[in-house]
Amino acid sequence: MIEIIAAGPLLTVQDAGRPDARRYGVPPGGAMDTFALVAANRLVGNLPGAAVLEATAGGVVLHFSRATLVALTGANLGATLDGRPLAAWTAVRAAAGARLHLPGRRERWGARAYLAVAGGIAVPPILGSRSTSLSGGFGGLDGRCLRAGDRLPLGTPTYAATLAFGQHWPAQGRPPYQPCPILRLIPGPHLAWFAPERIAALAATTLRVGTTSNRMGYRLDGLALPYRRPCSLPSLGVIPGVIQVPPDGAPILLMADAQTTGGYPVVGVVIGADLPLAAQLLPGDELRFTFTTLDEALAARHAQAEALAQPLDRDEGDLLSSLAGA
To answer: How far apart are CA 55 and CA 81, in angstroms?
Structure first.
């Protein structure tokens, strides 16, 4: 059992989401940073899409009622376990009664940290997933953000968990997390609706994540993309990564909890391999775009899949560097 002592601004249960429920109009949801989700689960011997805790921006304190194996990936939120720095991207034992504290961002980038526990978070699945759908009000724990006093059941660890202690995910096998990431775009179907110089500006302007952004999408400040002429579209299918442009010209980057259809022009789609970089942005953070090709997008996806499947070991150098905070 995990007890929530403090929950911070947005602590939820997330897993691989509900992609198969999109046909019913249900947002796919799930972890914003899917790379960090899979890596955390692999480190503790879980299936890749097992339920974890997604902590946004920090302010989290957790209590473990029994000894367990844990791994923390994603953003550096200053994690400590019983007052000592917790090695990130590493399988670590948490004793019965241990407390995990995530105060907040410690680097110039990073929004979300992912805590995997051997056996996973065992809330009931709904529509094939344990992830929290905040817009739908279901999944996770009562379809809401976690709060102080909540208790979360844990599943039974797999045999792989007994062999996982000390496994470390090397830095060179992680996404290139950084301040102001450059996100690669595949051109969208509605480029002709915008002046060519505006499209060129999209790839040359530093944009900022707006204050009204959330898990559904980021409203981007710093560039207006007005339509060349009045227009209307029938609704079409959209996915996380799509950049829609509403009539006010302010681009919106759709994220994990995005709706399944939309009627705004689509100027581009962030490639899947770069969405973990976008997931680590908070309001006020900056980003840039650059256009790319479908071939490059597929190659990047393949490289990411290989990184997620890399063998893990307990190389002494990696382990010592992880314990030092690398």
So the answer is: 15
Range list of β-strands (E), the chain: 2-7, 10-14, 52-56, 60-64, 68-74, 80-81, 84-85, 92-94, 99-102, 112-117, 151-152, 182-187, 207-209, 217-221, 236-237, 242-244, 252-254, 261-262, 266-270, 286-291
- pLDDT tens, residue by residue, 269-287: 999 999 999 999 999 999 9
**Domains defined for the chain, CATH in brackets:** 2-168+314-323 (no CATH), 182-292 (2.40.100.10)
User: What confidence tens digit (pLDDT) does each residue in 97-146 have?
Assistant: 999 999 999 999 999 999 999 999 999 999 999 999 999 999 999 999 99
Residue 276's CB is within 10 A of a number of other CB atoms, namely 24
Query: What's the pLDDT at 317?
Result: 42
Sheet with 80-81, strands from edge to edge, namely: 84-85, 80-81, 99-102, 60-64, 2-7, 151-152
Going by C-alpha positions, the residue among 104, 96, 46 that lies closest to residue 71 is: 46
The count of residues in the chain is 326
